[in-house]
Amino acid sequence: MLNIMIKELKLSASCLSFFFIAFGLMFFIPGYPILCGVFFVTLGIFQSFQNARETNDILFSALLPIAKKDVVKGKLLFVCFIEICSLLLMGIVTALRMTLLSNVSIYVDNALMNANCFALGLAFFMFGLFNIVFVGGFFKTAYKYGPPFLTYIVLAFVTMGIGEALHHFPKLSWLNAFGTEHLTKQILLLLAGIALFALLSVIAYNISCKRFEKIDL
C-alpha cells in the first residue's frame, strides 16, 4: 500500500493538488466566506483525477499486481492526504484567530463566518461530502469526473450557504462566537464534523470498491 501511495504522489498527482493546499490559509481572510477554501482544495484534487484520466492512470494501476480495491484505496488515501494537509493549515489559522488575533478589529467586526471550531467542523464535513460524492461518483465509470464534481459543487455551496446563514438566527448566534466563548459546544460540533468525515470516507471507499469491481476496463 505504501508503494501505491508513493505512485499516487509521484506519478498520478497534479502539482496543482499540492499548490491548492495553501487555500486552507483562506481562513485568515475576514469578510469572506472562508469555507470557499475547502472548495478550492477539492478543485486541486479534481485536477489530479483529470490528469489521471488523460494519462490512463486507472488502467495502468489496474494492470499492476494488486487488487482493484487497492487501486481505489490508493486514490482515496491520496485524496485524504491532501485534505488533511489543508485541514492542518485551517486548524493552525483557526487557533491563531481564536487566541492571538481574537482582539483584532477586522476579525471582531467580521459579518461572515468566523474561523472557529464550528467552521473547522464544517470543513471536515465538506471534505467528507467530496469523498462520497466525487470519489464515489468517479468510480461508477472510472472515467467520467465531470458530473460527480458538478454535483459536489452544488452540495458544497449549499452547505456553505447554510453555514453562513445559521449564526444569523438569534438562538444560534453562538455558532459564530469568537475567541473561547461557547468553546465547549463548538468543540462538540468539530468532533461531529470529524466523525462525519471519517464515516463518509469509509462509505465512499466501500461504494467505490463495489462500483469499480463491476467495471470491465
Q: What does this molecule look like?
A:
The protein has 217 residues and is mainly α. 70% of the residues lie in helices and 0% in strands. It has nine helices and no strands. It has helices at 2-12, 15-19, 36-54, 57-63, 68-98, 105-108, 117-138, 146-166, 183-213. Helix 5 packs antiparallel against helix 7 (117-138) and helix 5 (68-98) packs antiparallel against helix 9.
Strand content: under 5%
Pairing-aware structural class of the strands and helices? mainly alpha
Mean pLDDT: 91
Report the sheet with the most strands, covering strand number, pairing sense and barrel closure. Answer: none
Q: Would you summarize the structure shown here?
A:
The chain has 217 residues and is mainly alpha-helical. The chain has 9 helices and no strands.
Layout of SSEs?
Blueprint: H1 2-12, H2 15-19, H3 36-54, H4 57-63, H5 68-98, H6 105-108, H7 117-138, H8 146-166, H9 183-213
Defining key terms:
single chain
